[in-house]
Amino acid sequence: MEIEVKMPDLSTTGGELTVLKWLIAVGGSVKRGDVLFEVETDKATMDVESAHAGVLKKQLVEPNATVLPGDAIAIIEVSQVRPAMAAVAASVPPVEANRQTTSQPSESVSGVNPNTLAASSPAPPRAGMFAENRAKRAENATTTRSQNEQRAAAPRMLPAEISHDQLAAYNPSFLLELYTRMVRIREFEEGVKYLFLQGSMPGTIHQCQGQEATAVGVCAALRDDDFITSTFRGHGHALAKGLSMDEILLELYGAASGCCKGKGGSMHVGNYDKGMIPAIAIVGGGIPLAAGMALAFKMQKRDQVVACFFGDGATSEGAFHEGLTLAAIWDLPAIFVCENNLYGASTRVNQVTRLNDLADHANSYGITGRTVFGNDVLAVYEATKNAVDQCRSGRGPVLLELLTYRRTGHSRRDACNYQADVEKQAWFDRDPIRLLGDALTKHCDVDATQLKEIRDEIVAQFEVAVERARSAPLPSEDDLITDVFA
Amino acid sequence: MSTMNMIQAVRSALDVMLERDPDVCVFGEDAGYFGGVFRATQGLQQKYGSRRVFDTPLAEGGIIGVAIGMGMNGLRPVPEIQFSDYMYPAFDQITNELAKLRYRSAGEWTAPLTIRTPSGGGIRGGLFHSQSPEAYYTHTPGLCVVMPSNPHDAKGLLISSIESDDPVIFFEPKRLYRGSFDGDPESVPPWRDQPEAEVPEEHYRTPLGQAHIVRPGDELTVIAWGTMVHVARAAIQEAAIDAELIDLCTLLPLDLATITASVEKTGRCVVVHEAPRTCGFGAEVVALIQEHCFWNMESPVLRVTGWDTPFPCGQEWDYLPNRERIAGAMRAVLAA
């Protein structure tokens, strides 16, 4: 069947876009994820990926034509259709789900399009890793600028695999569960990405592909009644803490049955019963709040802990200093989880701090700080588990810096052309799902088919959830004024 | 003269001022290398160097505090706060340090900075990326508060703001960056088809403190600012009412003369804004109208505003004043 490709809403403010050039010729075959065309938005030149696999039948606009979001751009003859995607693209009856292995999102550098990378790279890759010990931290804190510069010039290397020794400590079913949770986040985010590209998903979206191990590793070490706070990049945290794909998708579509009744949208997902307060879309805004939750736990003599997620950029905010100070002086059961993906939007972390390890901030509050390789879900789990134990025994708080990398732009409308080639490659080689998947097939009795089945099942669940979310009733006009006061 | 959308007009104003005045500097989160998340500063770092156009950490209180210090020492900083919702972490610096600096130093010190910030809804930004917080700042003596509604005014007002020796909060309605807005969520009428998009390349000023009459009329006065100017204009056209539409442009200092002249003529008035109703700036406008025009009034003044709720994500279009609500208020005012 033929599917009409529509221009996604890549302009932040809904304005016009210019199709610069086509990267697939008429008659050419297209895989899901292939770059179809290049577009000039109000922000940048961006590549637009195809949500479908098939043959490009028609290009409906000439290069340099100006179009609006939602305008028809191309027609693709698809042989195998993802039902949810098809329903979005055209009012045709969905056909049976059938996935192609070739359309899987690549987890290797071969999937990287060099066109998306800027010619000038902002900075060399940082690979600060595995904080050593307390003594070293004290030394770091007093390190002079020149020493810091030397350290940045000689980055430590990140491991490119999870070893047998690491795996041996765990039950295989637990490892598969971690894998499943990470794949759920990846497939959810990839699915949402394509819904956005097809104009079905409103608003902007901040995604976490590449950061799955931080969310999953941290939440796996928490109890169900422990809490997390999250950020505008919160889908992964929500899924890892046990929210369903359904309730998050419903919220993304603004449905009355969404986890925040449609009032929050992508940047505010949460669910009290699952231990996640609605995500906080102001950078650093959740840090003092997490300290307050932890203080309440302590005052009420409950043994719960709170894990507070934030990014590297938040460490510059005043709220970071205030929140950690309070948590430290009162020994609060709070784990401050800094997901250092090396960029605050477009700005690289080394441009906004002189520290090599953001965990060194812990020194100024007199608390435990650790830097951990955040793409190794087991390392994250271990570090969090230790932090949880420390907090539950009254010796909190803990600052964890998890080194990770975002595989996508800051938001869906960010072309992400500030990440350097060499840096992307190093990190894509250390993709969290790939690291654990490789280790499972190499060291455990797991074969690739089993991993594929996990993924296929999640994709099928996602597509059902999309169907449900798209047809779910929206809130009524009366709902607009509910929940403002008690 | 060339055709510019609002973001290009803002960029052009920054470009002109960076060129003319070596004391002007532009900075903020992603404002340097990246050119700003809405592209207002695109290309400026390349042109003027990273000493004058630069990135900052995510630290709004720090950004404004630093800008105040720079301004006190002879520079003319133009910091960008990425969304007006992110100004709250800098609220102390703005309302205590910045606004009261001249007063508390008996005129000895000033900080002539212009804080640029995208504001308002209409892009499905949700609760923390859609707010219209202008009333917090109009309630703070010592600050000028400006909100243009089109490219020509945006450039002229921004230049006047940067040249002003008073601190200015310059709200840029983000829904208008790439096109105007007639109240139809699906429609973004391109600026190039509209006369206000004719923007001189060179330096010019649009005076602060001067409201614009967008459309003259005799039956009633409609007062709006920012995005709502366009929704009100569409509502007036659709309802075929001979309303006089006033775009305030500058909320503080307020152009009271233009308001009173119009309301004394028409005797009827509707005030439209995006922010919540209670203690919105519309309340101040209505109070001033009753103080100054009471004996000329034919009917009570009505407000059409956002609801007294947080800005909702999924119900954005129920929240924002639309053509129907504005037309309803106009008819009610005429019928009274």
Question: Could you walk me through the main structural features you see in this protein, from its secondary elements to its overall organization?
Answer:
The complex is a heterodimer of chains A (486) and B (336). By secondary structure, chain A is an alpha/beta fold. Chain A has helices spanning 83-89, 134-141, 145-153, 164-168, 172-197, 212-220, 235-240, 245-252, 286-299, 318-329, 361-365, 377-392, 421-428, 432-443, 448-471, and strands at residues 2-6, 17-22, 29-30, 35-40, 45-49, 54-59, 65-67, 72-78, 227-229, 306-311, 334-340, 343-344, 347-348, 368-373, 398-403. In chain A, α12 links the parallel β14 (368-373) and β15 (398-403). Chain A is globular. The N and C termini of chain A lie far apart (52 Å). With 336 residues, chain B is an alpha/beta fold. Chain B contains 12 helices and 14 strands. In chain B, α1 (6-20) packs parallel to α7, α3 runs parallel beside α4 and α8 (228-239) packs across α12. Chain B starts with a strand and ends with a helix. The model of chain B has no long low-confidence stretch (mean pLDDT 96). Chains A and B meet through loops of A and α3 of B.
